[in-house]
Automatic annotation (TrEMBL):
Residues 7-49 form the TadE-like domain. Keywords: Membrane, Transmembrane, Transmembrane helix. This is Pilus assembly protein. InterPro entries: Rv3655c/TadE, TadE-like_dom. The chain crosses the membrane at residues 15-36. Residues 54-73 are annotated as: Disordered. Pfam families: TadE. The lineage of its organism: Bacteria, Bacillati, Actinomycetota, Actinomycetes, Kitasatosporales. NCBIfam families: TadE_Rv3655c.
Length: 121
């Protein structure tokens, strides 16, 4: 004799499985967004270090692009001895799920020790 709640398990499963898949997708997107933000921060730091060492603009951009997510843009600025490198990128995702990410790093330009002071020695 069948019990009166035979169809409830199927109905509950039909609701729970899609909810779990949606939750997993949201968690995965969040982890990917966090990883992309960390890449932006690392890229900005690499660019600021390269600029502080006095590398040319192309070298700074190359250092940033080696660590940045695909499609990132780079902005550099110099204020006296401070160099600023900003990195902007977008997270993966359709439409409103694609968020903008920004990271900035600042470093003090290193003093060049070279020909000055070596002439007498």
């Amino acid at each position: 004799m069948p019990s009166s709640d035979d169809g409830y398990v199927t109905a509950e499963t039909a609701v729970v499985i899609p909810a779990l898949v949606l939750l997993f997708g949201m968690l995965l997107w969040g982890v990917m967004a966090a990883a992309a933000h960390i890449q932006c921060v690392d890229a900005a730091r690499a660019g600021a270090r390269a600029a502080a060492r006095g590398e040319p603009e192309q070298g700074v951009r190359s250092a940033v692009r080696s660590a940045a997510p695909d499609g990132a843009t780079v902005e550099t600025a110099r204020e006296d001895r401070l160099v600023r490198v900003g990195v902007r990128a977008r997270t993966a995702g359709p439409g409103p799920l694609s968020l903008g990410l920004d990271a900035e790093a600042v470093a003090m330009a290193e003093e060049r020790v070279g020909a000055v002071g070596r002439a007498g020695g």
